[in-house]
Design brief:
Largest sheet of chain B: 6 strands, mixed
Shape of chain A: globular
Strand content of chain A: under 5%
Distance between the termini of chain B: 47 Å
Largest interface: A-B, 21 and 29 residues
CATH class of chain A: Mainly Alpha
Structural class of chain A: mainly alpha
Structural class of chain B: alpha/beta
Number of strands of chain A: 2
Oligomer: heterodimer
CATH superfamily of the largest domain in chain B: P-loop containing nucleotide triphosphate hydrolases
CATH architecture of the largest domain in chain B: 3-Layer(aba) Sandwich
C-alpha cells in the first residue's frame, strides 16, 4: 500500500515536472537578479505584487464584462479617466478617500457609457471600447494642468501587526498600501461571486447562451448592464491605484498600455479571477525584473531592450500557452429578443 | 380530476409578420394528460403558434386561457409562471454549465445571501429525474452529453418549474431512432402523470404512435382535427400538404453499370484521434443506390468526410472511376464529378449569410459562365439562379435573400439543386431529409431516384431506416466503423437491419 502511494506521489511529481521545473528556474532567476540578498529579493517580489495590482484589477473588469457577453477593450480608457478624476478630486478636496470614490464612480460611469452603446443601443462593442480609449486620452489631456499635487501625499503603507515582520513574505504580503490590500481581497470575492452565487451563474449563462437565459426568465439586458458597470468600477479602482497609490500624481497617458495588457492577463487567466491573478503576477514579475536590471545597470546601454521584457512575455504567453482557452460563446454579439 | 378538462385553450390567435399571415384565427384546445400532436409542413405556422403560447412572440389578436382563466403571455416568464414549459427545437441550454446548473438556472435554490446551494440543486434534480424516469447525470457538463440526453435535460428543466403543459417543438428532428423511441415512451409516461403535451412534428409515424389528438395546420390555418384511430399515414399527409402524397417512392429495378466508387480497406480516425472507420471496403456502381444503415456515430460521418476530401484517411484507398483520390483536395474531388449533400446543412451545406444565388453556384463560381477572368458575371449568375429556384421549387422571396432565412426544406432543396446540376458521377448524400417536411422529403426522394435512373451512383447515409429501405438497391449495415453485411435490399428486412445496427452481429 505504502509502495503504491509513494509511487503515485512520484507520478504526480512526474506529471507536474514542467511546472516544478519552471518554478525552480523562476526562484533561481529571482535570487540571481537579486544577487542573493534578502533586501533585493524582497524588492523583486514586492515589485511583482505592485506591478500586478492594476493588471489584475483591469483583468477583473474585463472578465466581468466578457463573462456576461460584452467585450471591453476600453479598460485602458476607463483606467485613465479614473486615474485623472480620482487625482483631481483628491488634490482639490485634500481627501484621498474622496479621490478613491471619485475614481470608482468615474469608472462606473465609463462602464455605463460602454453598456449604453453596446447593450442598450446594440452598437459594435469593439468600436464602443475604442471610442472610450480615444475620448479618455483627449479629455484627460485637455483638462490636465501641471503643478497639481496631492496635499495629503500618496496612500500610506499599512502594516498588519506582527505578520508584517516575517522576513520576505511578511514584507511582501502583509505590509502594503490600502488599494493593494483591497485588490487581494477582491480577487477571491469576485471568484466566489462568479462561481457560487445566483448572480454568477446567471452572468455566465448570459455570456454563453443569452436566449437560454432569457427563456428561463433571466434578463439578459439587465445582467449585462449590471456587469459592465460593476466592471467599470473595478477599472476605476485600478485607475485610482495608479494616481493615488503608485505615483501620487497624474501624468498624460499614465496607464501606458496596462489596460491592454490586462486583456491579455484576462485571457491567460481564462476568464477566472484567480487565474488572472496568476497571470498578472507573471507579468508583474517581468516588470519587476526589468526594474532590477535597471538598478543593477545591466544592459543599460540599450534601455529599450529591457523595456520590452513585459511585452515579449505577453506575446509569448498569448501565442504559446493560451491555445486551449475558450472565451464565453456569445461575446461581441448584441442581444435582442425575437 | 377528469382527463378531459382543458389545460389550455387558445381562441382566434392571429399573428402577421410583414405581409405573411403566420397564424390566422387559430383555435386550439389542449386537454390534461393528453398528447396533442400539432402537425404541418414547414412554414405552416406551428412554431409561431407555440412561440406565442410560450410568450416569445406577442399575438396580434386572440386570447389564451390556462386552466379556464384568460392569461397574458407577454414574456417567457409569464408562461413559466402559468405552468407552461417548452422544449425548443434548438436547445436552450448553456453548453459549458452542468446539468444541475442548467436546470435550476433562473430559479436557483439559494440562501439569503444569494449563494447557491448546489447540493440542494442536485438533490432536487435527482428526485425529479427519478419521479419521471428521466435518467441524467446531474454533474455532467451539458456539451459532453449526447443530443437525446440534452433533450431530457430540457424536459427536466420545464418539470423543475412545475410545468403541467409541456410544448415540444420538433423534438425528434435531431434524435436517432433509439432516442426517438425513448422520448416517445417518456412522453407517454408524462401524460399518464397528468401533464398536457403539445408535440410538434412532421413525422407521421410518431403521431400515430403516441398522439391522443391531432391538429393539422397548413398556411397559418387549422385545416383539421382528428385522432390516430380515425386516420392513417396517407390521410394525415394529405391533410398536411393539401394533396395526396407519395410516401414511398415508386422505383424501377436498378440497372447498375460500371463501378464508380471503390473503397478498399479504409481506416479513418475521428476528431479525438480514435479509430472510427475500421478496414472498410465498399463499391458503388453507376445507376444504383447503396444505403448505409447504422446508429449514428458508428463511423458514417468520418467515411463521408473522407470520400469527399474533408478528412484524411489513415490507411486504405478510395478510387473514383479508377482514380485514387486519397491525396486530392475537396475541389479536385468535386471536379471529378462527386456531389455531396452534407449531414449538417447549416454548417457544411450553405453559407448562411450569402445569398441563395451565391450558394447555388458555390461549387462552380470560379468557372465560366459565372466567372470571366476572375470577375463575377452577375447576369449569368442571376439567370442561372432564377432558373434553379424555379426548377427545384425553392421557396424564397428572391435570389438575393440570405440562405439562412430559408426554411429547412428549402435549404435542402437549394443544396440538392446545386449538387444535382453538377454533371456528377457519384452523389454522397448524408441524412438528406433530416428535419424537413413531408413535401420536401417526397421531392428529394424523387430526385434521388430520377438521378439514379440517369446513371448516377449514390451513396446514401441515413439514420432513418425507412429512408434506407425505400430508396436503396443495396444496403450495407455499419457498426463500429465496419460494414457487417452488404446485401441486396430485398434480402434484408427491418428487424434484421435493426438487430445488426444495435448489436453488430447477424446471428439471431
Amino acid at each position: 500500500m505504502s509502495v503504491k502511494e509513494s509511487k503515485s506521489i512520484q507520478q504526480v511529481l512526474f506529471s507536474k515536472r514542467w511546472w516544478i521545473l519552471t518554478a525552480l528556474i523562476l526562484v533561481i532567476f529571482t535570487l540571481w537578479t537579486a544577487e542573493f540578498q534578502e533586501a533585493n529579493t524582497t524588492a523583486v517580489l514586492a515589485g511583482t505584487l505592485r506591478h500586478s495590482t492594476p493588471l489584475v484589477l483591469g483583468a477583473m473588469c474585463g472578465l466581468l464584462c466578457e463573462r456576461s457577453g460584452v467585450i471591453n477593450i476600453g479598460i485602458e480608457g476607463q483606467m485613465l479617466m479614473s486615474a485623472w478624476g480620482g487625482f483631481m478630486v483628491a488634490s482639490t478636496s485634500g481627501s484621498l478617500l474622496l479621490g478613491l470614490f471619485a475614481g470608482i464612480a468615474i469608472g462606473m460611469m465609463m462602464g455605463g457609457v460602454l453598456a449604453g452603446i453596446s447593450v442598450g443601443l446594440r452598437g459594435d462593442q469593439i468600436i464602443a471600447g475604442t471610442v472610450i480609449n480615444i475620448a479618455a486620452i483627449g479629455i484627460t489631456s485637455f483638462f490636465f494642468s501641471l503643478g497639481r499635487t496631492l496635499p495629503s501625499g500618496k496612500t500610506q503603507v499599512i502594516k498588519l501587526g506582527p505578520l508584517a515582520d516575517i522576513p520576505v513574505a511578511g514584507r511582501v504580503l502583509f505590509s502594503n498600501k490600502p488599494i493593494t490590500f483591497l485588490t487581494l481581497l477582491l480577487i477571491p470575492t469576485v471568484w466566489f461571486l462568479l462561481f457560487r452565487t445566483k448572480w454568477g451563474l446567471r452572468t455566465r449563462a448570459v455570456g454563453e447562451h443569452p436566449s437560454a437565459a432569457e427563456t428561463v426568465g433571466v434578463s439578459v439586458i439587465g445582467m449585462r448592464y449590471l456587469n459592465v458597470i460593476m466592471g467599470g468600477g473595478i477599472a476605476g479602482l485600478a485607475g485610482a491605484y495608479l494616481s493615488l497609490e503608485a505615483v501620487g500624481s497624474f501624468e498624460r497617458g499614465m496607464t501606458n498600455g496596462k489596460g491592454f495588457v490586462a486583456l491579455a492577463v484576462m485571457i491567460f487567466g481564462r476568464w477566472n479571477p484567480v487565474g488572472a491573478w496568476g497571470a498578472a503576477l507573471l507579468f508583474g514579475y517581468a516588470s519587476a525584473v526589468q526594474t532590477q536590471f535597471q538598478f543593477r545597470d545591466w544592459l543599460t546601454d540599450d534601455p529599450q531592450f529591457i523595456g520590452i521584457i513585459p511585452f515579449v512575455v505577453t506575446i509569448v504567453v498569448l501565442a504559446g500557452f493560451v491555445g486551449r482557452a475558450r472565451p464565453p460563446a456569445s461575446i461581441g454579439q448584441p442581444y435582442s429578443r425575437e | 380530476m377528469s382527463s378531459n378538462t382543458l389545460a389550455l385553450e387558445a381562441t382566434s390567435i392571429s399573428k402577421t409578420f410583414g405581409n405573411v399571415k403566420a397564424n390566422d384565427q387559430i383555435n386550439l384546445e389542449i386537454k390534461k394528460g393528453r398528447i396533442h400532436a400539432l402537425l404541418g409542413e414547414n412554414g405552416a405556422g406551428k412554431s409561431t403558434l407555440v412561440n406565442i403560447l410560450f410568450g416569445l412572440y406577442k399575438a396580434d389578436s386572440g386570447t389564451v386561457k390556462v386552466n379556464g382563466e384568460v392569461v397574458d403571455l407577454g414574456r417567457p416568464k409569464d408562461a413559466i409562471d402559468q405552468g407552461i414549459g417548452m422544449v425548443h427545437q434548438h436547445f436552450q441550454l448553456v453548453p459549458v454549465l452542468t446539468v444541475a446548473e442548467n436546470i435550476v438556472l433562473g430559479k436557483e435554490p439559494a440562501n439569503r445571501a444569494n449563494v447557491i446551494d448546489i447540493e440542494e440543486a442536485k438533490k432536487k434534480v435527482k428526485e425529479l429525474a427519478e419521479n419521471y424516469q428521466l435518467d441524467v447525470d446531474t454533474e455532467a457538463t451539458v456539451e459532453d452529453l449526447p443530443v437525446g440526453t440534452q433533450q431530457r435535460v430540457e424536459i427536466l428543466r420545464s418539470l423543475y418549474r412545475k410545468a403541467d403543459i409541456l410544448i415540444l417543438d420538433e423534438p425528434t428532428a435531431v434524435l436517432t431512432p433509439q432516442e426517438t423511441d425513448h422520448l416517445l415512451q417518456v412522453l407517454k409516461n408524462l401524460a399518464s402523470q397528468g401533464v398536457a403535451i403539445i408535440f410538434i412534428t412532421h413525422k407521421l409515424r410518431e403521431v400515430l404512435e403516441v398522439a391522443d389528438e391531432v391538429t393539422v395546420m397548413r398556411n397559418g390555418q387549422v385545416v383539421g382535427s382528428t385522432t390516430p384511430s380515425e386516420t392513417d399515414e396517407s390521410g394525415l399527409a394529405e391533410m398536411m400538404v393539401g394533396r395526396s402524397v407519395v410516401l414511398r417512392v415508386a422505383k424501377e429495378e436498378s440497372s447498375p453499370g460500371e463501378t464508380i466508387l471503390k473503397v478498399n480497406n479504409l481506416c479513418v480516425h475521428d476528431d479525438r484521434d480514435l479509430l472510427a472507420v475500421n478496414d472498410l471496403s465498399l463499391e458503388v456502381k453507376s445507376g444504383e443506390i447503396l444505403g448505409i444503415a447504422g446508429v449514428e456515430g458508428n463511423g458514417q460521418r468520418e467515411l463521408v468526410e473522407t470520400i469527399t476530401g474533408l478528412r484524411n484517411a489513415k490507411t486504405g484507398e478510395i478510387l473514383i472511376s479508377d482514380t485514387s483520390i486519397i491525396e486530392f483536395s475537396p475541389r479536385q474531388i468535386s471536379e471529378l464529378g462527386v456531389a455531396h449533400i452534407p449531414e449538417d446543412r447549416e454548417k457544411h451545406g450553405l453559407i448562411g449569410a450569402h445569398s441563395v444565388a451565391d450558394n447555388l453556384i458555390l461549387n462552380r463560381y470560379y468557372k465560366t459562365p459565372f466567372s470571366n477572368k476572375g470577375i463575377r458575371q452577375q447576369k449569368a449568375i442571376a439567370n442561372y439562379a432564377t432558373e434553379m429556384v424555379e426548377k427545384f421549387d425553392i421557396r424564397t422571396p428572391d435570389i438575393d435573400t440570405p440562405s439562412s432565412s430559408l426554411s429547412g426544406g428549402n435549404k435542402q432543396k437549394a443544396i440538392a439543386a446545386r449538387e444535382f446540376s453538377h454533371d456528377a458521377k457519384l452523389l454522397v448524400a448524408s441524412q438528406p431529409t433530416r428535419g424537413i417536411d413531408v413535401g420536401s422529403i417526397e421531392f428529394v426522394h424523387q430526385q434521388l431516384i430520377q438521378q439514379r435512373d440517369q446513371g448516377l451512383a449514390v451513396l446514401l447515409v441515413s439514420a432513418e431506416l425507412d429512408e434506407i429501405l425505400s430508396l436503396s438497391d443495396r444496403i450495407a449495415v455499419i457498426y463500429r466503423g465496419r460494414l457487417i453485411v452488404t446485401e441486396n435490399s430485398a434480402e434484408l428486412d427491418r428487424n434484421r437491419i435493426g438487430r445488426i445496427m444495435t448489436t453488430g452481429s447477424d446471428s439471431t
